[in-house]
Amino acid sequence: MERLTLDSETWLLVLTGAGVSAESGVATFRGMGGLWEDHPVEDVASPQGFLKDPLLVWRFYSERRAGAASVAPNPGHDALVAWERHLGDRFLLATQNVDGLHGRAGSQRVVEMHGNLFKSRCTSCDRAPFSDTTVYARGTLPLCGQCGEMLRPHIVWFGEYLDPADLERIEDFVQAAVAKRGKLVFLAAGTSGAVYPAAGLVDRVARAGGETWLVNLDPSENTHRFQHFVQGKSGERLPALADLR
User: Fold this and answer.
1) Are residues 88 and 198 in the same domain?
2) Do 82 and 97 fall into the same domain?
3) How far, CA to CA in Å, does 100 sit from each of 112, 126, 151, 242?
4) Most CB atoms within 10 A, among 4, 79, 95, 154?
């Protein structure tokens, strides 16, 4: 297997997707066949679905909280923590996962692009998103302690935009690597790499002269855009992939 060299010149941007969490036992929409209790995913993961039936949405996310809290980080998560400790500020992890497993594993420089399952925010006032690990009982609609209006999960739903600040943080990292004349590397793990933001990031790093890697269980139609493709489970491949120098 090819090795990824992480030396004193390396700036590493990592993107993780659902495959990384699936190896810990976190259920994915793909694994559910796109349905939950016969509800299309849009019923429980869109602004329209929330407006239509907020109790249903909160029941879904409470179940997801319970499920995510019962699993543990896997060796793929642990490998990324080791890489971050080695590289320090020359490491940035962007994740599409919302389960918080990267943080529980010990990752610190993390951009949670799709939000966090264990945070809530108010639908009305300017209260900042806050930690909320509560698994709400069926029929419970949590309300904001500041204004009394409905809370919602701090998740980027279908039809919503990613936070521009998150995208800016990623772009700033790439620009810093280029400015420092470092060896820029982008690695996508547990994701096809064929859709945004993976597709955009691989092209952005390639334009900057960086090195690109994809670690995934299966190849995708976008695999050819990466210079290196390592097939397999991220929990098995990542721990053996890097040569720390």
Assistant:
1) yes
2) yes
3) 9, 23, 19, 24
4) 95
Locate all alpha helices (DSSP H) within the chain, ordered by sequence.
18-22, 41-44, 47-52, 54-69, 75-87, 101-105, 164-179, 198-207, 234-241
Residue 46 makes CB contacts below 8 A (sequence gap 6+) with 157, 158, 159
- Residue 122 φ/ψ, nearest 5 degrees: -80, 145
pLDDT in tens, 27-47: 776 555 566 667 888 899 999
On whether the CB atoms of residues 133 and 118 are closer than 8 A, the answer is: yes
- One domain for residues 130 and 219: no
- The range of the structural domain enclosing residue 44 comes to 35-70+119-155
The whole-number average pLDDT for the span 84-96 is: 97
| Residues 47 and 93 reside in one and the same domain | no
The residues with which 15 forms a beta bridge, in sequence order, are 94, 188
In tens, the pLDDT along 191-204 reads 987 778 778 999 99
Give the C-alpha separation, 71 to 24, whole Å.
Answer: 6
Q: Is 114 a catalytic residue?
A: yes
Q: Is residue 172's pLDDT more than 80?
A: yes
